[in-house]
Amino acid sequence: MAEHDLSKTIIPYLDRHLSFPLLTHLADRSSFPVEEVQAAQYELAKGTNMFDYAESLFQQLHPDDEPPAEFEEKRKNAVSTHERLQQEAQAVLDVIENPDVAQSLRQDKNQNLQYLKDNYNLTLDQITALYNFGQFQYSYGNYSGAADYLYHFRVLSTDNDLNTSAHWGKLASDILTGKWEVALEELNTLRDVIDSRSPASLLAAASASSNASEPALAQLHSRTWLAHWSLFVYFNHPQGRTLLLETFLSPTYLNTIQTSCPWILRYLATAAILSRKSASVGSAGAPVSSRVRNAIREVVKVIQTEEYQYQDPVTAFLKELYVEFDFEAAQRELARAEEIVGNDFFLVEFRDEFLDNARYLISEAYCRIHQKIDIGDLSERLNLSRDEGEKWIVNLIRETRMGADAKIDLEKNVIEINRPSLPVYQTVIEKTRGLALRTQALGAAISRTGQQGSGKSDNQAPAVAV
Amino acid sequence: MSSGDEAQPTTTTTAAKPAMSRFLRTNDSSSSSESESEDESDSDSDAPKRPSRPTLPLAGESDDEESDDEERPGVRIMSAQEKRLVEMEATGKVMENALKINDWVAISTEFDKLARMIQRQHNVAEPVPPFYVKTLINLESSVNTALGKEKEAKKKMNATNAKALTAMKQKIKKAVKEYEDDVKKYQEDPEGFERQYLTTITRDTTAPTAPAGGRRAATAAGEQEEIDEFTTVGKGGKVMQFTAESIFKNLQAVQEARGKKNTDRAEQIRILEKLLEVAITSYQRIRVLLALISSRFDYNSSVSTHMPTELWLSAQREVDQLVSIVAADLNYSIQEVTEDYDELLERSPTTENGVVRIRGSIISFVDRLDDEFTRSLQNIDPHGTEYVDRLKDEKALYCTICRAQAFYEKTKQDEPLGRVIMRRLEHIYSKPNAVVQALESAADASEIKPSMTLSAQGTTSALIHSLCVYLYRSGNSLLRTRAMLSHIYHHALHNDFHTARDMLLMSHLQESIHSADVATQILYNRTVVQLGLCAFRSGLIKEAQSTLQEIFTTQRVKELLAQGVHQQRFQVLTPEQEKAEKQRQLPFHMHINTELLEAAFLVSSMLVEIPLLASIDSEELKRKAISKPFRRLLDFADRQVFTGPPESTRDHIMQASKALQDGEWEKCRDLIQSIKIWSLMPEAASVKEMLAKRIQEQGLRTYLFTYAPHYSTLSLSLLSRTFSLPLRTVTSIVSKMIWNEELSASLDQSGGVVVFHRIELSRPQQLGQVIADKVGAMVDQNEKTLDIKMGGTGGWGERPDGNKGEKRGEQTQERRGRGERTRGARGGARGGRGARFSQGLGNQMPGHTSQRVG
């Protein structure tokens, strides 16, 4: 089981604090020896300011030994640091929380800073105290407090590097406190920051990920990290899966995944499978972009190209189903994939949904290719008993567009699918559908350039005359 | 200096050299030394280039009597001198005649001739003959009178003549100035001058007197040596003629003579070798070695031929020696730019207070050594044993490069280190493991080792990786590009297709390669081709086809890979172009077998194209969809009235393609597998097996496409039997075709059959579809054109529903997935790398470009 576990691969890309839930999950699943997981947890906790937690872990590990004295020392240190930082931060906070100040603050950060400086004698250094205190709070596990301070800091500060760092901190805090809505918002802004950032000023992100010297590399690193962190949000937020597809299938992130972290493909593949229903629902309700609609096709393509560097049952399932059309193998892979999904920290919630959707995909593909299907055979393909299978198929036919074409012949126990091929007229109409609109857009663009061009030539003409 | 009789004495002298020096040292007999002086005078008089006078073979001379010997040089030189004088006088005569008719053009040319003769005279260290001085004085006066006349009667002379006259005036002025002393002396006492001249020339040629003041130091020094020789030998050889003290003087003499027209290079090398023997201190040895190596490289001045192997070998040894001296004692450093220092003084770390800096450049020696090696391989017939023998020298060269690398690592000179590492990389990137191991083990044996060795890194790939990583880090972008390409090539060679492909795509080289130099473009082409072969070997037929297609559409594969000069049918190359082209050619052992390449390309084309051909039913589409090179061959094969048994690789493949079209996959397989060239491919057996499997699959697809209209149902088990594929594979292939809507059919599970739903389209319906397609293509084309016009990324088409943006996004994603294909298409759209490349090669090919456009 452990062979397909990704925790080990993912943890290096996570913050210390974000790894705790993962490890706890591992401990619960007991796919690794408990001692090892605990040791790992202890090692993690040792680096933070959460001594009590670390101490209890230590005691769990070595029930007989005395906890090391360094904890006491650290605790003292931490308490004094806390007080000092709090005092510093409090001064700023007092000012900011003053309703007058809150009202007079504007969009322009520089102006705000000037205002604070003039009226309340607040300097940039003092504001940085907010950041320091926020960071400190984060380090001992007071995530909501940290989120607060970092938020205030970001509103005021003009320091780009620290701002980015604060962004990451806030995102982590929001994730750890489980405020998914806020975290999602934070994630989006952070993504914008990374994408829009001119490579030169990415050093902050670089220092967070590694001491990479090259800006392009730093950007790649930040994107890799973001891809990992966002898993927390996307698999917990109700709209998350669709958003995940939207993000990860965009060319920049797809390239990031392909170059630096192909294992994310598992989550991409799972999300694509899960999105099946939302896609079909979406066609009626909220508009879903074509990227999500064609997610599976896209994902299959990527899986195929990356097959040489990453493969697991989830991706293998898609590959067998849509590349090889080997339904038996797909069914086998599905059984293994189900287990993996059930054990994965991010995916565990979606196990049933995953299975449901995967079955649907199989039967859809099966029905499209076959004309006459033995119900028993199909049920077997879906890992279902005969009765269950029949029920499932009836539901399937009812739910989907196939309704008109498929009939069940109970006597022979087969489904007959009669799909009239598309009339030629229809294909011609399909092909020519968007043409008028596209041509219009072309015309508009040309006339726009024409104006610009003539404007330019107007400007030039007098110059020549002179 | 390339006449036939020239070559003879030089080879004999070099051959006789070691024996001679031994003689000198042991003071055996005077005859040998005389034969040497003979030799010298021989070459001296030979220098003025008299093809009419045959040179005497040396062997015969050494047998001569002593008494004979004493006189002969004088006599011979006298005759030469006289001849020269006669010649001069003849010129003078012509000039006089021309003077009479006032033809200044003739005078000018004759005077030039005369001046050249005098120059030669100088080089053989003879005094200026009085005749010349006399002519000079005469000319000066007549020029002056002519000018005076000219002023009075303006319209008498034509333009060219007038020009020649003024030119003459300048020349005479210059010449008179140069020989001022002689002229003065002559004017004072013409007879005395003449007498003096006669006495000097009747004396021994090598007499140290210098009657002419304008003589150069170089010749004087050269003479000095000759005198030394004579004295030492005469005294009985107590001391050697070159002593440690006189080294710098000799060295300077040699250096000054370097590059002059009539310097005897073989002689110079010999002098320097002797100097090297006597050199004591490191400083002396470094200086002599520097001079010696460069004069060895100078030996062959013409660009077309290569350095003789013996010379090359000794140069290589000397570079080694130089490197080890400098590496052993860090107090000496060789730099391209140094402060000025006195060439004639001995220097040591103590006199210089630290590091002694000497002007010179080891890296350029190493570069030159490598270049000469390549050049010799280019010129030697690759099918002879000489080529193989020469190739064995690569080991020594590789060692030298490694030593140089170690030296630069030690002294931390980054710029030359990068260059030397590149050289090293170029020697190993395209070689199989066994060869690299052999080279590396030789390099390992030397006492100075670079930090990166095969034994330290473990595998060849790791070694190449570390070399490349160093070059990636160094700032030089050219080296970086080349290292990257070599690295990719290496990966491809070792069947690591995915890594190689990813590296190539991530490097974005295909966008910038057009602006690179020709050598890098060649390397790029080689890399791409190797990548294609790698894909073929790994069974990735589609990738192989699209990778190789680009280079095969140009039909100039050999030229693009620098493995042969393309025969231009309509235009003739100028000699310079041809020469440049020849220099670019790769040595034979680096070649990628083009026949194998073509076989790989055509077979993969066959596997891709034949099913495609079968799937398309309208003629128009057929014409468009097929790649040109394969299509052309297929058409040609179709037109053949009678097809005999296949002979060439192409015949095999064409007949195999036809068999595949007819559904006879077994025949196709047999034909393909009987191609002999596969034996050159590593893992030939597995490749053949892979091909057989592909042929089965594609045969099935082709069969279904071709014969589907004639069936309403078709049993899967029959298909499985016919193509001897497992039922599961058949089902999988059929399912795939149905899913991709290539085949309008469905499976009937209970009966185990494929049911075809074919609808015959009426003609208007077909036309309607075609029209719809065309209109769609037109709009696409328009959008593309506008895109280009707007500068690509300008978001003119961002419609509110965002469809366009997504489409573009999808395209970019696809780029990676189907990287190969996209790249091919992009190259085509730009007019092709071929077109750009041909510009780089200096020959335009309008035919090709228009073909692309059309």
UniProtKB/TrEMBL annotation, chain A:
One of its GO terms (molecular function) is translation initiation factor activity. GO terms for cellular component: eukaryotic translation initiation factor 3 complex. Keywords: Cytoplasm, Initiation factor, Protein biosynthesis. The keyword Protein biosynthesis applies. PROSITE patterns: PCI. The keyword Protein biosynthesis applies. This is eIF3 subunit 6 N terminal domain-containing protein. SMART domains: eIF3_N. Residues 233-422 form the PCI domain. PANTHER family: EUKARYOTIC TRANSLATION INITIATION FACTOR 3 SUBUNIT E. Pfam families: eIF3_N, EIF3E_C, PCI.
From TrEMBL, chain B:
Residues 1-80, 786-854 are annotated as: Disordered. GO terms for biological process: formation of cytoplasmic translation initiation complex. Pfam families: eIF-3c_N, EIF3CL_C, PCI. Keywords: Coiled coil, Cytoplasm, Initiation factor, Protein biosynthesis. Residues 825-834 have a biased composition (Gly residues). Transmembrane segments: none annotated. It is found in: Cytoplasm. Component of the eukaryotic translation initiation factor 3 (eIF-3) complex. Component of the eukaryotic translation initiation factor 3 (eIF-3) complex, which is involved in protein synthesis of a specialized repertoire of mRNAs and, together with other initiation factors, stimulates binding of mRNA and methionyl-tRNAi to the 40S ribosome. The eIF-3 complex specifically targets and initiates translation of a subset of mRNAs involved in cell proliferation. This is Eukaryotic translation initiation factor 3 subunit C. The lineage of its organism: Eukaryota, Fungi, Dikarya, Basidiomycota, Agaricomycotina. The gene is NIP1.
